[in-house]
Amino acid sequence: MKLNFKLFWVLAIFLFTLSCNKEVSNKVKKKPNILLIFTDDQRSDALGIAQNTEIKTPNIDNLARSGVYFKNSYVMGGHHGAICAPSRAMLLSGKSLFHVYDSLEGVKTLPNSLSKFGYKTFATGKWHNGEASFEANFQEGAQIMIGGMSDHFKVPVKDLNEYKKLTDSSLKGFSTDIFTEAALDYLDRYQGSEKQKPFFCYLAFTAPHDPRSPAPKYSNAYTEDEISIPENFKPLHPFRFDDFNIRDETLAPWPRSPGVIQSSISEYYALIQHIDDRVGDLIKRLKKYDLYDNTLIIYASDNGLALGSHGLLGKQNLYEHSTKVPLIISGPGIPKGQTSDALVYLFDIFPTLMDYLDFEKPEDIDGKSLLNIINKKENQIRTSIYTAYRNTVRAVRDNEWKLIFYPQIKVTQLYNLKQDPNELYNLAQNLFYKTRIKKMMNLLKYNMELADDTINLNPSKIQSKEYNYKNLVQKLDPWQPKYIIEKYFPEGTSRN
């Protein structure tokens, strides 16, 4: 009996000590806050850190230098012209293009997973994946824009009320400012709370998506004469592969003129510089509250943009300028000043965060963790990147070569990205590269099977690739301010 009593106390002391040690361990291993900044239509080269000497992005550049900058980050593509909707679904679900559509209803998401593990979740800005899915994904939300785009000066926004329902919309502007202020207000509230739980703050800007109408402070930040014409600029795309009357391609007249492209890029850069300034404000606020050192900051974008490259304006294509996006990860435990050439997707962010936080990942996600790359244990996590747009274009690249295939018109493009990063010289017609094309086509088919892409690469009817630009409709959508319509279409806004 005495022995049992003694054992009881030994066991009690052991359990108490274990509990105390666990508490100490939890304090030592305090989970970091997470700030995910997501821009809209930002090309990978629209940053100073990307060797762009014309754009001014010092805060984002410094963020990249304080962490890991991924030079080869991609969005997988889209089912339709609104590339941003599937891109955001892929980002938040960790699933690839053919395993998730636009809606996130009923899908396991990053914010839901973080909430499950004790995170406070907040969002502001653009949400293009349905109202119901927003209400199901976040505990708090303010200044939410439901949909794909709006006038930057008149943004229809909603708040998430105490019943976890979105309110009626009200018009506010400027977009970059109202979304940033909502995030700053959240940090103020978080600082005033007990801060026992870490936060996940999702800030989704609508800039630099058109309308390319910068706020007055930035309207003269760049002049057309300062802007270089893209090296791969063309007045017209050399062949038709999809609907060129799609909204993005109607924002300026055909053929494209150098002056119009310079003007568009100058406005585009101004919108990004505005974002950069507000990123600086966010970092200052984090530092003010002693939150910066324990906050993981991720900076990325939903897709790129042509802006005159290859005769195109939009993102409805699979050239590098439209599928490659910025990706920066900086924060506690992340090596500083590191640049990676690894081939990565946006949907790799979800599993990366789960591994970084030592949380269990959902079994059905397609993304791969980047943690071993961040920790310099690996240089690559995959040997190829596969992209798709509608049923009209498929592409695959490895560390050197890229193949773009248009099945409906039977056109093949082959580029050596190491020697020709701007995709200027199509080598597909050179017999010397016949073996290389075959190898890349096999790689394309392999990736299609892996992604569950069932498109027929050999349709029975081959469509014409010829087109007459004079037959293209050139009409701006209603979101464009009057001065932009008058600027780009002084002689009228439509042509049939």
Outline:
The protein is 30% helix and 17% strand. With 496 residues, it is α/β, with parallel strands linked by helices.
Question: What would your notes on this structure say?
Answer:
- The chain has 12 helices and 16 strands.
- The chain is α/β, with parallel strands linked by helices.
- The chain folds into 2 domains: 32-382, Alkaline Phosphatase, subunit A (3-Layer(aba) Sandwich); 391-465, 2-Layer Sandwich (Arylsulfatase, C-terminal domain).
- The chain is globular.
List keywords for this structure.
alpha/beta; 17% strand; 496 residues; Alkaline Phosphatase, subunit A; five-stranded mixed β-sheet; 12 helices; single chain; 2 domains; Arylsulfatase, C-terminal domain; nine-stranded mixed β-sheet
Present the secondary structure layout.
Elements: H1 2-28, E1 33-39, H2 58-65, E2 68-74, E3 77-78, H3 84-93, H4 110-116, E4 120-127, H5 131-137, E5 140-146, E6 155-157, E7 170-172, H6 175-192, E8 199-204, H7 258-288, E9 295-301, H8 320-323, E10 324-330, E11 338-340, E12 344-345, H9 349-357, H10 371-374, E13 385-389, E14 393-397, E15 401-406, E16 411-416, H11 434-451, H12 482-488
Parallel strand pairs: 1-8, 1-9, 2-11, 2-12, 3-13, 4-5, 4-8
Antiparallel strand pairs: 2-10, 6-7, 9-10, 13-14, 14-15, 15-16
Helix pairs in contact: 6-7
